[in-house]
Amino acid sequence: MRNNAFHRARALEVGIERRRGSGRGDVGRVEAAGSRVSVCWRASFFLLRARRLTPPRRSFSRFEPTQGPKGSMEMKFPETMVFTEEGEALKIARANDSPDARKGHGLYRTLCNNMMVGVSTGFEKKLKLIGVGYKAAMQGKDLNLSLGYSHPVIMKVPEGVTVACPSNTEVTVSGYDKVEVGNFAAIIRAKRPPEPYKGKGIRYVDEVVIQKEGKRGK
Known about the structure:
Number of helices: 5
Structural class: alpha+beta
CATH architecture of the largest domain: Alpha-Beta Complex
Radius of gyration: 26 Å
CATH class of the largest domain: Alpha Beta
Strand order of the largest sheet: 9-10-5-11
CATH superfamily of the largest domain: Ribosomal protein L6
Strand content: 25-35%
């Protein structure tokens, strides 16, 4: 598919140059013709390659380390973000009012806040197992799940994440990295998602599963 999109875009460009000559105005016509090739992003990407253009790139050259009782984290921040300390607070401001700076202001503030909260208090996700014979237990450093399959589900706990089983139907995932905690909790849930008729499966503690009404006999 990529090769076809590239050759079509190239053929359109060569055909326009032959019919109307090369000039500054041909660039706009190539773009308009290339937009009819395909609505897929791959076509526009190869059209950029045919015109020897590269998409803009953002520079991420600054590391901001964070340490706390739960661990340490670091993240790359662009030059458009300016950090200032005011007492015990850390403020993030924009270096300028460029579109990239305005778009990323709220995002990087949230990411920085997640780092601070993670290394100080940490994050936690709680899941529960609903179903006859569904059980969870720690087997050494691995999580052992019995979910009604013909075999137990053994899951390796990633580094920086802690898993505990307060009971045989409860699983608690905690850690200092919000992304890793949420990702591993989602992987556990995906092993047996709650089904819509009886609600059996793995769900979050605060999750509401809307159950469907089963078929009734006449």
